[in-house]
Amino acid sequence: MREQDELHWWQRDAIYQIYPRSFSDSNGDGIGDLRGIVDRLDYLAGADSSLGVGAIWISPFYPSPMADFGYDVVDYTDVDPIFGTLDDFDLLVREAHARGLRVIVDWVPNHSSDEHPWFRESRSSRHNPRRDWYVWRDPARGGGPPNNWRSAFEAVGPAWTFDGATGQYYLNSFTPQQPDLNWENPDVEAAMHEVLRFWLRRGVDGFRIDVVHKLAKDPELRDNQPGLRHDEDWQPTIHDRLRGIRRVVDEFEDRMLVGEVYLRDLRRVVEYINTGDQLDLAHNFVFLFLPWDAQAMRASVEDFEQLAEAAAWPAWFLANHDHPRVASRFADGTPGSGERRARLAAMLICTLRGTPFIYQGEELGLPDAEVPPEAVVDVDGRDPERAPIPWERPSDAGPGAGFSTGAPWLPLPTGAERLAVGAQLGDPGSTLQLVRRILDLRRSEPALQGGSQRRVDSATQVFCFTRESEDGHFVVALNFAGERVRLDPRGAVVRRARVELSTYLTRAPGEEVELGALVIEADEGLILRAM
Ligand code: NOJ
Ligand code: CA
Question: What does the domain layout of the chain look like in residue ranges?
Fold first, then answer.
């Protein structure tokens, strides 16, 4: 176990994900931008009322035709005019760093836009020197796509697009506007490494690597078989490629890599972090997909702890820009349950041993937006969770809710009037205030950062564990049931404790409880200090 002062910056505090289109619009065009982020930095760190996160991860802001809202990059080393300029980016890094906030950018190495100059050249002729920068193949014998690989987007279908001009198919693991780069080609690898150096020199503290498991595929492009995929996580190549990326990042001091390792098998996920010379963190999608169930969550956390090497560090998240929000996904139909569960989820990911990732708006308990058919813009149904952040009550700030003075590019989430940042800052019992206090406690208590974690057997609906270091000893008890439950702890656990925080924020701070007699409210989470 690392001592507290030896923890890396990316282990200590929460990391906040910004989806820039929907965060804050500085110029009234209805789309969030980099200046908008700068304007809101005090909300995140450095001021008295800040949320208190340690870093931001910003989803792509590079020049893009926006077929996949920025995950289709036309120029890896610039800023799309809709988001601002490189000067704005430099300002953002300076202002973030001045507040002690680290900056992580999204790197999209698996595919570019089909309008990227590399792809334009590549598709121009079979003999173009850049032909081999992408994955081109002849049609299958008898016609049709070269193999059975499918796009990750259901609506797209086969992962191959026929290019009539040169009579071959190109591979697109996402939309046809996102041709896959050919990582078998060392020139591609070198060019993408240069992209990392460009942003590292500009002062970024790390990268979130988009679909990192797709950077190595079967070079023979054989068909996927049931239970055996050839289109991702190709062994051992994927790990060699990651080591190459790590070496580039290690040319600079104290930088971090978190990967979108979108694999539903923890044994494969931990391979990306266990060796210490690949990723620092891997987003855990096994955890994201769990049902709202204390036992399932506990088992998954324990699986991770068992499979991961002692030095490997978990990353916990339950929401991002690709998945329905917690308050919508886990609501059980009773009034307020979505918000109560968003609060419980926040307490869970911020108290487990590991780094919490908070998707913008989760700290507000936002639900998904209702997006009428005529307003749908995403190919894969992800508009609802990408709704703009309501900063002010619409009744005060107009229909843009302080996100924009213009018409927002997507409808605002339902309940903006009550859930807006401005409304929640003024309410000591709000979800925002709760998340602030959880993060505050985490920052001031070494046990909640680097402390050891042990399970406490208890009522089946409750996920209960301890966090302990020489500086403190906490019991976290999270009730996943929509009804009151007696904790009923078993085995060696402290008998008495003091309430530090309840997700309800109604219990008197410092209230003493007898763990054996403790009754937890429906969907309530508690952080207790052992006595
Ligand atoms: C994962 C990103 O999070 C998602 O938004 C995107 O569509 C795909 N990768 C393709 O880049
Ligand atoms: Ca704007």
Answer: 3-110+185-379+415-439, 117-171, 451-530
CATH number, span 3-110+185-379+415-439 = 3.20.20.80
117-171: CATH topology is Oligo-1,6-glucosidase; domain 2 (3.90.400)
Q: Tell me the sheet residues that pair with 525.
A: 478
**Cα–Cα distance between 343 and 24 in angstroms, integer?**
23
Q: 509 pLDDT band (50/70/90 cuts)?
A: confident
| Continuous H helices in 406-445 | 416-419, 421-425, 431-444
By most ligand atoms within 8 Å of CB, the mutation choice from 61, 71, 359, 382 for ligand 1 is 71
Contacts of residue 291, Cβ cutoff 8 Å, sequence gap at least 6 = none
Nearest CA to ligand 1 atom 11: 71
Cis before 408? omega within 30: no
- Relative to the alpha carbon of 88, which ligand is closest? 2
89 lines ligand 1 (CB under 6 A): no
In this structure, which ligand is nearest to the CA of 213?
1
- 53 pocket-lining for ligand 1 (C-beta < 6 Å): no
Residue 341 CA to ligand 1 center (angstroms) comes to 26
- Extract the tokens encoding 438: 């959880």
* 3-110+185-379+415-439 against 451-530: fold identical: no
| Contact yes or no for 528/478 (Cβ under 8 A) | no
Q: What is the pLDDT of residue 5?
A: 61
Residue 71 alpha carbon to ligand 1 centre in Å? 6
Give the per-residue pLDDT at 1. Answer: 44
Task: Kindly write down the DSSP assignment for every residue of 133-187, as one continuous string.
Answer: GB-EEPPPTTSS-SS--B-SSTTT-BSEEEETTTTEEEE-SS-TTSPBB-TTSHH
Helix (H, G, I), strand (E, B) or coil at 96: helix
Hey, is 526 helix, strand or coil?
strand
Whole-prediction pTM value? 0.98
How far away, in angstroms, is 31 Cα from ligand 2 center?
4
| Atom of ligand 1 at shortest range from CA of 322 | 5
pLDDT single digits (tens) 386-414: 999 999 999 999 999 999 999 999 999 99
Query: Is the shortest distance between the CB of 359 and ligand 1 below 6 Å?
Result: no
CATH topology of domain 451-530: Immunoglobulin-like (2.60.40)
Catalytic residue check, 445: no
Atom 3 (ligand 1) nearest CA: 322
The reply to whether 90 belongs to the active site is no
